[in-house]
């Protein structure tokens, strides 16, 4: 997944809490991102590709 693709996935992912973090139990393409900010989730997704 390219950085641009990861950004698009994060942009359209709706389970984001008021504090800007993803709700617990949220995953993107099988990668758990629950409790992470957009920046943390993007880094994790790029690490997993």
Spatial separation of the terminal alpha carbons: 6 Å
Largest sheet: 2 strands, antiparallel
Number of strands: 2
Radius of gyration from CA coordinates: 10 Å
Average pLDDT score: 79
Question: What general form does the structure show?
Answer: globular
Structural class by secondary-structure content:
mainly alpha
Order of helices and strands: HEEH
Query: Order of strands across the biggest sheet?
Result: 1-2
Please render the helix and strand layout as text.
Layout: H1 3-12, E1 27-28, E2 31-32, H2 38-48
Antiparallel strand pairs: 1-2
Helix pairs in contact: 1-2
Folded structure, characterized:
The protein is built from two helices and two strands. With 49 residues, the chain is mostly helical. The protein is globular.
Summarize the structure.
With 49 residues, the chain is mainly alpha-helical. Helix content is 43%, strand content 8%.
Keywords summarizing the entry:
single chain, 49 residues, mainly alpha, two-stranded antiparallel ribbon, 2 helices, 43% helix, globular
């Amino acid at each position: 997944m390219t950085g641009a693709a990861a950004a698009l996935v994060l942009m359209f992912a709706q389970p984001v809490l008021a504090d800007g973090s993803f709700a617990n139990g949220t995953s993107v393409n099988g990668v758990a991102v629950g409790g992470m900010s957009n920046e943390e989730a993007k880094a994790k997704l790029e690490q997993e590709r």
